[in-house]
Inverse folding.
């Protein structure tokens, strides 16, 4: 049972993945293994992660009228996600991500947005029933800036808990950022938000909260877990030690698990603990969704 829905506005992609011994440097060509296709997109991944943690999930966005789009929607339906508000765009390609994964589990990703770049700013209106104060609204940066800003404004106006995962990294209008309840960046995304590199000690994170104008920052720290920073305190949550297979999608798993915990009524600090544990499990499997655990 959950107190509200998780409504995810974001990208829906197909991931084309190849394994390599070492990631290539600039101008370098390397020989990889077999090409593998996975379902992906930051928005869709976060929706799946939340659904597997027991949340009632609504996915909003767009796909093309191609085989990739059809398969992407079918994969979300299998997870029990409501896709009735996803637009299927005639003549548009579905979003695609090209991913190289090293033997050590690190990755490089290039995204071709396709239909994701054509999501309309009023996308949140497609949620049925309308967004309410019980809901958690999640958005990321793989859809246009105007969409992100409108979703944050509309979600806040509806009284929902609004979460922003500012990835890929880019600056956010301070007036819009002030409406977000929880901002979830990694170290690089945090630097983009505040306009400079950030020290990850407690003093640096406290200063980053003030500089960003955010209500709460949950900074993901990879193998070191996460840090919850507000204007009052910094709380660190260490990650369990696991055998890493593939870090692709770990951040999305974290965001989805955090949203699911908040939707079922957990306090933010407890939700961060749950999200760290879920994300740690996720890197023990291959692919963005391959290791995502169920609650």
């Amino acid at each position: 049972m959950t107190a509200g829905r998780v409504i995810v506005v974001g990208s829906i992609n197909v991931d084309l993945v190849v394994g390599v011994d070492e990631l290539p440097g600039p101008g370098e060509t390397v020989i990889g293994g077999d090409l593998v296709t996975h379902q992906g997109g930051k928005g869709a991944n976060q929706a799946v992660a939340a659904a597997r943690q027991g949340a009632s999930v609504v996915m909003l966005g767009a796909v093309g009228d191609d085989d990739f789009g059809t398969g992407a929607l079918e994969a979300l339906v299998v997870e029990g996600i409501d896709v009735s508000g996803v637009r299927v765009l005639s003549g548009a390609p579905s979003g695609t991500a090209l991913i190289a994964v090293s033997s050590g589990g690190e990755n490089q990703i290039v995204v071709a947005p396709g239909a994701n770049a054509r999501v309309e700013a009023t996308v949140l209106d497609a949620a049925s029933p309308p967004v309410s104060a019980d809901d958690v609204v999640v958005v990321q940066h793989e859809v246009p800036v105007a969409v992100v800003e409108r979703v944050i404004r509309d979600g806040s106006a509806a009284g929902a808990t609004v979460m922003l995962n500012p990835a890929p990294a880019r600056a956010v209008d301070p007036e819009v950022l002030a409406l977000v309840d929880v901002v979830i960046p990694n170290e690089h995304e945090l630097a983009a938000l505040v306009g400079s590199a950030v020290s990850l000690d407690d003093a640096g994170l406290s200063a980053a909260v003030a500089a960003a104008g955010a209500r709460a920052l949950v900074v993901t720290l990879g193998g070191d877990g996460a840090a919850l920073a507000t204007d009052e305190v910094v709380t660190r949550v260490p990650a369990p030690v696991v055998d890493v297979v593939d870090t692709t999608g770990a951040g999305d798993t974290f965001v989805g698990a955090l949203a699911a915990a908040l939707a079922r009524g957990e306090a933010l600090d407890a939700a961060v603990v749950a999200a760290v544990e879920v994300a740690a499990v996720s890197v023990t499997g291959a692919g963005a969704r391959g290791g995502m655990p169920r609650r």
Summary: The mean pLDDT is 94. The radius of gyration is 18 Å. The longest helix spans residues 268-282.
